[in-house]
Amino acid sequence: MTHPTHLDPIAHKLTEFFQTHLPITDYMGMSVEYYDGHTLTLKAPLAPNINDKQTGFGGSLYNMAVMACWGMAYLKTQEAGIHCNQVVVKGAIEYKAPVTGEIRSTCHVADRSVTEAFIHDFKTTGKARLDLSSSIECNGKQAVEFHGQYAIFKPL
Description:
CATH class: Alpha Beta
Strand content: 25-35%
Mean pLDDT: 95
Largest sheet: 6 strands, antiparallel
Number of helices: 4
Number of strands: 6
Radius of gyration: 15 Å
Distance between the termini: 45 Å
Number of domains: 1
CATH topology: Thiol Ester Dehydrase, Chain A
Helix content: 25-40%
Shape: globular
Structural class: alpha+beta
């Protein structure tokens, strides 16, 4: 399966955030593979994220899934020129199949109005929440499904 390599120019801001504030992403080998304003794909090699069964470690898969959604919310705030604090409020994950190769986590937002409402709410009230989902595929099948809620608020 081939993977697109398009990177919107704003995607470097997520890479910079990872490098500056989240050392675990460096250890995992996590990087931005694709971003076009609607879809964000993060990738990481299996080797530093492997478990005793020689498949993707559940904690690494969770982190990849959370960060694909977190990254989407972050990039939307960057596109809007918003300076804010951002947190994951809640998350639920389902492990459906083992991951046996490079890990790719994708968050896709098809409806632009969802992220526009998120930004509008923040600009109006100083806080906002956004529900996002991500998935990890392996061998053409969905291996992981994640649903999370993210919040932004004015810096303290």
